[in-house]
Protein: LysR family transcriptional regulator
Organism: Manganibacter manganicus
Amino acid sequence: MTPLPPLSAVRAFEAAARHLSFTKAAAELGMTQAAVSYQIKLLEDRVGAPLFLRRPRQVVLTTAGQRFAAAATEAFALLNDAYAAARGEARDTLCVSTVVTFASNWMARHLGSFQVAHPALAVRLNTTDQIVDLVGGEADVAIRSGAGNWPGLVSHRLMLADFTPMLSPKLAESIGGVKEPADLLRLPVLDPGDPWWRQWLAAAGVPVDSLLERPGSHMGSQAYEGNAAMAGQGVAMLTRSFFLTDLAEGRLIQPFGLVCDDGHAYWLVYPEQRRNVAKVRAFRDWLLAEVKATLDQADPGSPVR
C-alpha cells in the first residue's frame, strides 16, 4: 500500500478546502494560520503537486486539490460515523433542510415511519425556503424545488410539482357546484397572481383577464393556501400529491382532472462526498421508497371528489 500522509495534514487541507480559507480553517481547528499553511505545504510535498493556487486574499483549489478535497471530506464523514458507532453512542442527529410546503404537507405526515425504522437517529427539520450550504455543513440533506441542477450535489427527483385547483365542498356548493372551469372564477381565488393560475386556466380554455382585477393576496406557501381552502376561504392551486389525505377524507375536492406542471419538481439533494455516510444513506433509501409508495396510491388522471 502507498504510505498515507499525516492525518493532521489531511485534516488541515480538508478544512481549508471546505472554507477556501486558511484563516477559517485555522479557527475551526484551533490552530494558527501559519500552522495550517505548513501542514498543507507538507501535504503538497507528499502529493507532488500544488493543491491550492495562492492568490492575494484568496486561495483556489487546483484540479488535483478538487479531487482530493471531495475524497477527504467523504473519508472524514465516514470516519466520524464509524467512530460514533465504535463508542456506542445512543443517538445521532440528521439535519434536513426542507421547504415549508414539503415539510408541512408531506414530511410531517410520513416522518414517523422513518423514526420507527431508525430509533437511534434523531431528525431535526430546518424549515426554510432559503438555500442552505450543504457542503459547508449547514444541513446533512435538503429537499429543494427546482429543475434539479445544483453543481456538486447529488439530486434525486421525488415528485413533480404539478398543480390543479382545489376547494372545499361547502364552497363549491355555494354556487350550486363547480361544473366547468369557468365556474372557479365565480369564487374567491387564493393567490390570483400565482403564474400557475394563468397556466392552468389557459390550458382549460378559460380567459385569464379577470385574474388581473383580483386583490393580490399572497400566502407564500401551499401549506397555508391548502388550509385556507379547507376552511372555505377560496379556491387554491395546489400540488395533488400533498393533499391526497384531504381529498380522500373530503376536506378538499379536485373538480377537474386537468393537472398541469411547469417542469419543476421536488428533489432530495446532498453533497456527492457524503453519499455513503450511514445516516444520509438511510434517509435517502427511506425517502425514495416512501415517496414512491405514496405516488403509487394516487391516480393523477382521475379527479378526486
The domain at 164-248 is CATH 3.40.190.10 (D-Maltodextrin-Binding Protein; domain 2). The CA atoms of residues 94 and 123 lie 5 Å apart. The first helix runs from residue 7 to 19. The two ends are 66 Å apart (CA to CA).
